[in-house]
Amino acid sequence: MDGDLIALVNKLQDTFNAIGGEAVDLPQIVVVGSQSSGKSSVLETIVGHDFLPRGSGIVTRRPLVLQLIHTQSSTTGTTDHDGYLPDLSAGHGGPYRPAGRSMGGATGIDYAEFLHINRRFTDFDEVRKEIEAETFRVAGQNKGVSKLPINLKIYGPGVLNLTLVDLPGLTKVPVGDQPTDIERQIKNLVLDYITKPNAVILAVSPANVDLANSDALKLARTVDPRGLRTLGVLTKLDLMDAGTNALDVLTGRTYPLKLGFIGVVNRSQQDINLDLPLDDARRKEEEFFQNHAVYRNISHRCGTKYLAKTLNSVLMNHIREKLPDMKARLNTLMGQTQQELNAFGDATFLGEQHRGSLILKLMTEFARDFVASIEGTSLDISTKELCGGARIYYIFNDVFGHALQSVDPTENLTLADIRTAIRNSTGPRPSMFVPEVAFDLLVKPQIKLLEPPSLRCVELVYEELMKICHNCTSPELQRFPRLHTQLVEVISELLRERLGPTSDYVSSLIAIQAAYINTNHPDFQAGSAAIAQGGAQPLPPQKVPSLAGSVEDDESSSEDSGSVAPNGTLNHRSSTTSVPETRVGKLLAEPKTKHHRAVSTGASAATSPQPQVIPGAPTTHQGSPNNAKETFLNYFFGGPNGGMPVQSNSAPGSSHGHRALDARPSPQGYAPRDILPDLGSGRRNGGGPSGLDAGTAAYDMKSLGKHLETEQLVNLTPRESMEANLIRSLIASYFGIVRQTIQDLIPKAIMHLLVNFSRDAVQQRLVTSLYKPDLFAELLHEDEALVTERTRVKALLDAYKEAFRVLSEVSLKSS
Ligand SMILES: Nc1nc2c(ncn2[C@@H]2O[C@H](COP(=O)(O)OP(=O)(O)OP(=O)(O)O)[C@@H](O)[C@H]2O)c(=O)[nH]1
């Protein structure tokens, strides 16, 4: 039973070595000692073979995990119950046969196996060479040390069940080309092993050096201060100065260790040189103790044989003691490993007949994850960054919102441009009033400025959805990279399909806004009123109290009057309510005027703001959008519908051919030309390009533009400047309204056409595209790395389970 324990630990050690399970702290004996203290000699005598490298300097440079496995002798078929054949007189069958001497005989063969090569060694010289080669391979030629252990098993009827770890000897000074920190390196390596509470420390100290200077004991003390798991070994007792002895140490009077001290005498260097067989050396050792005057009385507790036996029982007791801990640890590990294994997928879905349901399950999970990410109901919601639906909201609200707000509605629209547009829209004739068509002409391209940010918004949401789709994965799905790729591909295709219609719709929303400039929009009318109000300064006494006059006065203040909000938009609501009952303000504060057109020939503009149709005046545009548009600027610049007194006897024909409202008859009977004589002449005399007068390039925008470029902008006449500023303010006002609408509509459109559509279609699309039995094999092709990893985890779990089972049996029997 006890033999089983060590065999079990050995088995666990192998399993964990092979599959990388470092988690179990297995009970093992760790040999520690300073250089040349005799560690290798002790190990060799325990094993009964010369198999360790020898030489000067540091020979042991990698940990050597040595498992001694007792096998039954084939001649006797028996063994003593603790797996140890103690009878030295048994000769070849004894435990301390030198290498090669008993090999090949009927008594059974000792042989060695390394974990790193699949080969059985029966020649222990070869074992030594292999250890040397393997040491060099990893730790380099005579260089530093390596933590990577060499695993060696020695089988034979002559060995005890034992697990020992040989470590590099503690050193002080680097020699040769050793690294300068060799002392620290070795110390750390040793500490790595002896710190583990399940390690039994075999502290080897030479008896010919004062125990107070023992590096092994010093280091052991740091991790086992009460000396509970340290076994002291005193070597070189034969080399002590004459007259001195180590009796006090061996009897535990000098240095207290629970497991005590055992004295040994190994082969001297000379013995080695003379190739003294190990069994001869053991006899010599036995004789040494039995014949020694001081040690005679304790000779049964001295020597390598006794050490081996003690180690065996110490290790078994230690394992037995650690059983509950190991079981608890294994239990935890089993739980963890099981969980790890579960992450690779439900075992119930393995097998060909379940492929369809597995694919369906993975698809559904994928679709569910995708929808959950969008809706923010995902289980693993990040707290580090916005994700999924929240990012879409962020795109709408912050990114898109800011992008729209940063669009300057009058960008690239200089006063000169506006003047040019005004002039172009008046045709060859000088015009007295600002034509509404100019406003129309100018505002449309500005509305188009909203298109790029809107389309970008679609793209950003699309990209976000793509990201969500790529992030939808699970450890189970990772097993099937091709299925995952296909799932992502199908969703990507769905999203791509939706990108076109969504972008088109968004573009058409902008186009719709540009298609019809609704100057009759209530907010715009209110905003326009505020603009007008901003310019409604007290009129100079000498002028006719006309709108034109008030606006003209505004020219000096319009730049800084603040009628346009800093962001280029108007606060329509407050403007509306704060519009004083000025003439223009009152007119514009009643947005429904257009719809109530009535013949009201005698009404004054101040009390009757409705655009009025004059008998005999051209009415062809009445009711049409153009007509509606043509009306609103009249509030500022006069015209038949505005408050401007216009002479009814003005020739109606003079207005046709362009949309300028200057010559339209008004019910009041004044012609704008009459009341604003300076405007028309001002343009001709002041800022007007001479080209216009010459008439040669009146319609040529280019030459006009060039001309304007050459002329300084300040050359705008006051009238032109006023007109241009006013138009600009109105553009900003109108643009603000459109922007608000767009800001509201685009996210709705994107949600409907892209996000919600994809969300609702994802499951069905996946099923129709991928749920095809002939695709199953391809889709369920497993990732090889993951298959390996799953196999490893499965093997680990099995090993834990097996270890747990054996441990349970052992503890049952021993209880
Ligand atoms: N006389 C005598 N010599 C011993 C005894 N033990 C070890 N030696 C000698 O001491 C030297 C060092 O012994 P090793 O067993 O190689 O010492 P080590 O601790 O393994 O050395 P490193 O692996 O280099 O750290 C060898 O020449 C041994 O023959 C002993 O009990 N008596």
UniProtKB/TrEMBL annotation:
Domain annotation Dynamin-type G: ranges: 23-324
Positions of the GED domain: 724-815
Family named by the database record: Belongs to the TRAFAC class dynamin-like GTPase superfamily. Dynamin/Fzo/YdjA family.
SUPFAM superfamilies: P-loop containing nucleoside triphosphate hydrolases (SSF52540)
CDD domains named in the record: DLP_1 (cd08771)
Alphabetical list of Pfam families matching this protein: Dynamin_M, Dynamin_N, GED
Coiled coil: none
Bias (Polar residues): 566-580, 601-611
Location of region: Disordered: 533-626, 643-696
Signal peptide positions on this chain: none
Keyword presence, Nucleotide-binding: yes
Protein name per Swiss-Prot or TrEMBL: Dynamin-related GTPase protein
E.C. number(s) listed in UniProt: 3.6.5.5
A GO MF label: hydrolase activity
Enzyme class: hydrolase
Record keywords, A-Z: GTP-binding, Hydrolase, Nucleotide-binding
